[in-house]
Design goal:
heterodimer; A: mainly alpha; 0% strand; B: alpha/beta; Rossmann fold; 2 domains; three-stranded antiparallel sheet; 35% helix
Chain lengths: 251, 242
C-alpha cells in the first residue's frame, strides 16, 4: 500500500496540482472573509438546527465536493488518455493495487481538503471575535463532518466512475458538470413546486436530502441503506473497470 | 535462470491474435521475433508482461533457481513500440515513477547511471511532452533498464532512434546478452542477425519457424530471405517448422 501511495503521490506532485488547489483555497479564503452572510449563516447553523441555514452552508460545501471530484477525474482521465495505466501494470502494479490506490488517494484528498477548509474557517471565525469553544463546537459538529465527508467521497467516486467509463477528460468532466447542473435544476424546480415530498424518494435530489438528514436530524435506516448501496455500486463499477483494463482498447 | 513459455494464446473479442505459442529461453539467450505486420509479435510481448490477458492452457513459467522452492518471478523490462511516458512530468520524474513501480530503493545512483549511458543528461529536467520521438524512445529504453531486469523485451526498439541511439542500443544488447534473457522484435534484420541466438517467426498468430539462428542460417542465406519466403508462402507454415 505504501508503494502504490508513493506512486500516486509522485504523479500528482506537479504545478497543475499546486495551481488547482492554490486557486481553490484562494477563492475559499476570499469567500470566507468577504461574505458576511455566509459567515453568519454557517456559524449559526452549528447551534440552531435550522434546515434552511444548513442547506445554505451545504450549498457552499458543494464547491469543494465538486472540486475534489473534478480533480480526481482529471488525474484519472489523463492516465487513460496516455495509456500510462498500462505502463504501471507492466512495471509491476496489479490492477487491484491501482484500484485501491485511486480509492485511497480519493480518501486522502477528501480528508486533507476537509481539514484545511475547516482550519481556515476556524482561523477566520476566531479573527472575527467568536469564542474558541463556540467555533470548535460548530466546525466539528459530528453530523456535519460525517455528511461532508461522505458526500465528498460519494461525488469523488461518481467522478472516478465517469472517468473510467468515458476515459476522456473533456467529455467526462463535461458530463459531470452537466449532471451536477441537472441535479441543481431538478432540486430547484422541485422546491418551487409543491412536490417537495417527492425529494425524499427522488434519486437525483436524494443526496441533498440525505446530507440534510445527516446534519439536521439522525439519519434513518432507509436513507443510510440507499446511501451506502450507491457507494457500493460505484465501488463495484470502478473495480470492474480496473479489472477490464486492456492494452489495446480499440480491439 | 530460465524463461519457459507454454501454449500462450491471446484472444480478444473472439479473435485469436496469437495461438499456442511455446518456447524456452535460458540465460544468455537473445530471441529475435520476426513476422509480417499483424502477426502477433507485439501481442506476444504484451501477453508475456501481463498486460494482455492470456487464455486457454497458457502457462508462463519462470524459474530463477535450480531448487523449485526458491523459484521467484523473473523481473521484466519492456520497451513498447510507442513510448509511454507521463507527458506532464520531467524525464527524471518518469524515472522516479518507474523506480517506485518496480519497488526499487535508493535508485538515484542507478537513474543517474542510466541517464549518462543513454546520453539523456541535458534532457533530465525537461518535460516528456517536449521531447522528440527519438528522445522519447531513449527514455523508454532507460526505463526498461531500471532495476536491472532478468528479461528485457524490446518491441521495435530501433524505431525513431538516430545513429547514435542505435549504437547505444547495440552496446546495451551486447552487454546484457551475456547474463540476461532478451526478446527482440524488429524489422531491422541486420540487428536480428547481429544479436540473436534464436529466431521465432510468427505469421497470423502462429509459430511458423522456431530454432537457433545457426540452424536457420544454414537453410536460408539471411533472415531477410526467410522473411521474404514467409511473405511469399503464407500457407506453408508446417513445412517451414523445424
Amino acid at each position: 500500500m505504501k508503494r502504490i501511495l508513493r506512486f500516486e503521490m509522485i504523479k500528482i506532485a506537479n504545478p497543475i496540482t499546486w495551481i488547482y488547489w492554490g486557486l481553490f483555497f484562494m477563492v475559499f479564503i476570499a469567500f470566507c472573509v468577504h461574505e458576511p452572510k455566509f459567515f453568519t449563516e454557517i456559524f449559526k447553523a452549528g447551534f440552531i438546527y435550522d434546515e434552511d441555514r444548513i442547506s445554505f452552508s451545504l450549498d457552499f460545501a458543494s464547491y469543494y465536493k465538486y472540486s475534489i471530484a473534478i480533480f480526481i477525474m482529471f488525474i484519472t482521465c489523463r492516465e487513460f488518455e496516455k495509456n500510462t495505466i498500462s505502463r504501471a501494470i507492466y512495471e509491476g502494479f496489479s490492477k487491484i493495487e491501482l484500484f485501491s490506490g485511486k480509492i485511497v488517494l480519493l480518501i486522502i484528498i477528501t480528508l486533507l481538503v476537509l481539514i484545511l477548509t475547516r482550519s481556515i474557517l476556524f482561523v477566520v471565525f476566531i479573527l472575527r471575535g467568536y469564542s474558541v469553544h463556540a467555533v470548535f463546537f460548530m466546525l466539528f459538529n459530528f453530523h456535519f463532518i460525517v455528511a461532508e465527508l461522505f458526500s465528498c467521497f460519494f461525488l469523488g467516486m461518481l467522478g472516478l466512475m465517469l472517468s473510467l467509463l468515458i476515459k476522456n477528460p473533456y467529455w467526462a468532466i463535461g458530463l459531470f458538470i452537466s449532471l451536477a447542473f441537472l441535479e441543481f435544476l431538478i432540486t430547484f424546480s422541485l422546491m418551487l413546486t409543491t412536490y417537495i415530498g417527492l425529494m425524499n424518494f427522488f434519486p437525483i435530489g436524494g443526496m441533498v436530502n440525505i446530507i440534510e438528514k445527516m446534519t439536521v436530524e439522525e439519519m434513518g435506516p432507509l436513507a443510510l441503506i440507499y446511501f451506502f448501496s450507491l457507494q457500493l455500486l460505484f465501488m463495484v463499477i470502478i473495480y470492474k473497470q480496473y479489472q477490464n483494463l486492456k492494452w489495446l482498447r480499440k480491439r | 535462470m530460465k524463461l519457459e513459455v507454454e501454449n500462450i494464446s491471446v484472444c480478444t473479442q473472439k479473435i485469436h491474435i496469437i495461438r499456442e505459442i511455446s518456447f524456452e529461453l535460458s540465460k544468455g539467450s537473445v530471441l529475435g521475433l520476426i513476422g509480417p505486420n499483424g502477426s502477433g509479435k507485439s501481442t506476444l510481448m504484451k501477453a508475456l508482461i501481463g498486460v494482455l490477458p492470456k487464455t486457454g492452457r497458457s502457462n508462463l513459467l519462470v524459474m530463477k533457481h535450480k531448487n523449485p522452492k526458491d523459484d521467484a518471478h523473473l523481473t521484466f523490462g519492456f520497451v513498447p513500440e510507442e513510448p509511454i511516458l507521463y507527458d506532464y512530468m520531467t524525464v527524471y520524474g518518469n524515472f522516479l515513477v518507474t523506480s517506485i513501480s518496480k519497488g526499487l530503493k535508493d535508485s538515484c545512483q542507478e537513474i543517474e547511471n542510466i541517464i549518462q549511458l543513454l546520453r539523456l543528461g541535458n534532457l533530465a529536467s525537461r518535460k516528456a511532452r517536449s521531447l522528440s520521438q527519438g528522445e522519447k524512445k531513449r527514455v523508454s529504453i532507460g526505463l526498461a533498464l531500471l532495476g536491472n531486469p532478468d528479461v528485457l523485451l524490446l518491441d521495435e526498439p530501433h524505431n525513431g532512434l538516430d545513429v547514435d541511439g542505435i549504437l547505444i542500443l547495440k552496446s546495451i544488447i551486447e552487454i546484457r546478452a551475456k547474463d540476461h534473457i532478451i526478446v527482440l522484435c524488429s524489422h531491422y534484420f541486420s540487428e536480428i542477425e547481429a544479436h540473436c541466438t534464436h529466431i521465432l517467426a510468427l505469421a497470423r498468430g502462429k509459430i511458423m519457424l522456431k530454432d537457433s539462428k545457426k540452424v536457420i542460417l544454414e537453410q536460408y542465406k539471411s533472415i531477410e530471405e526467410l522473411f521474404t519466403y514467409m511473405i511469399l508462402n503464407p500457407t506453408h507454415e508446417t513445412n517451414l517448422t523445424v
